[in-house]
Design goal:
By secondary structure, the chain is mostly helical. It has helices at residues 3-14, 33-43, 48-59, 84-87, 104-114, 118-142, 156-159, 168-171, 186-189, 198-213, 218-221, 232-251, 255-272, 311-324, 352-364, 368-385, 405-422, and strands spanning 31-32, 71-72, 229-230, 276-277, 282-283, 286-287, 292-293, 390-391, 398-399. The protein has 17 helices and nine strands. A hairpin with a 6-residue loop joins strand 8 (390-391) and strand 9 (398-399). The two termini are 29 Å apart. The relative contact order is 0.13. The structure holds alpha-D-glucopyranose.
Amino acid sequence: MTDLYRAAVEILQENDRGSYTIPTKGLYPFQWNWDSCLTALGQSHFDESRAWTEIETLFAHQWSDGMVPHIVFHTPDDGYFPGPDVWATGRPVPTSGITQPAVAGFAIRRLFDRATDRGQAATRARALLPKVTAWHRWFFQNRDPEGEGLVAILHPWESGRDNSVDWDDAFARVPTEGIAPYTRRDTQHAAPEHRPTKEHYDRYLWLVEHFRALNWDNTRLHAATPFQVVDPGFNAILIRSAADLADLAETLGELGLAAENRAYATRGTAALESLWSEDHGQYLCRDRVLGALIDSRSSGGLLAAFAPIPAARAARIAQTIEGHGTRFRVASQAPDDPRFQVQRYWRGPVWLVVNYMIADGLARSGLAGASAAITRSSLDLIRTSGFAEYYDPRSGEPLGGVRFTWTAAMVLEFLALADLCQSAPDERWES
Ligand code: GLC
């Protein structure tokens, strides 16, 4: 057991609140959706049962229409804004009213595949299958009204890449007038120059207030908002989760659920092709209101490698990442884009969860060398800079929150991957 392993486990245990894990003390004192699913992967290395509980807790707060909210406010805490009173979703345990990347299906399948307690894994996976499928169904019913096979996000926070350059133009349509006065809390925990701007925050809140005025009725929100973006990373995660859930459902003999998820994955994978940019060597977002691709080379378009995309596309994505030329990969925005900001949140910095999903996707496409390069870079970064929320891709400077849960979880995953690579012949390391 290495020091890095021990330090990662310590962080996961320190942020564990019994049945869910907070991302970090202070900045994020509740349960976040995709954080929890990825955190469960880390937990599975030392406590399988606890890992299942993490995801089960999230799904205990699923809405009756199938949506799984992006935050569950388990216990009151003034340290975060916007809190439950701003969302006002009327849930028994308060939650936010928007969702986040649907990585649960992938996580559950991975927990199941690696489980040493096979009986427990079968029982707990079987109970989660219909719930995760209901979430996938919710996406296609509410976020894909034309049946194109891809879903839209209606708030930048749904993407998980809050202030990405991807949203700038579409977001400019969102008004800032008329919102209630507010005080941000994030900038009291982290440096303001590493966080989203005030102008972004005003628009985040306008959307929240707008959806709240529509009573969080998901059948109405898509048509009623000026911000509808089809994000390749977000869709790739949903598609991969649907494909993984289909495999898992087959293994467990749940053939109806398998067929439904398979159909989402197959249709989505084909539709993803409409977002490919040959010029940029990656996928791009589409502004659904304008019906046009968004000219922004973010990590969302690289994250598409997480879905079962054609091998040639994956190889091109690997080259594009190589071309970034940063000491630490993967920058969240192409460094030669004039809008790149080396330390501002999702406009440049490296995030380990994104690295993990890209590395996994590239490995599945047969690009072991490119995948291993991301694993190596990620572990170097942690050895240099500790378990931060995100990092400067050039210097490796740690940014945002500290002792960060999903960063620790990903380190456990990367360490396991690095072990696998070390036991393989050398050429598997080279691209
Ligand atoms: C930030 C990130 C988001 C994450 C959350 C909790 O809002 O942008 O992806 O889920 O923090 O860690």
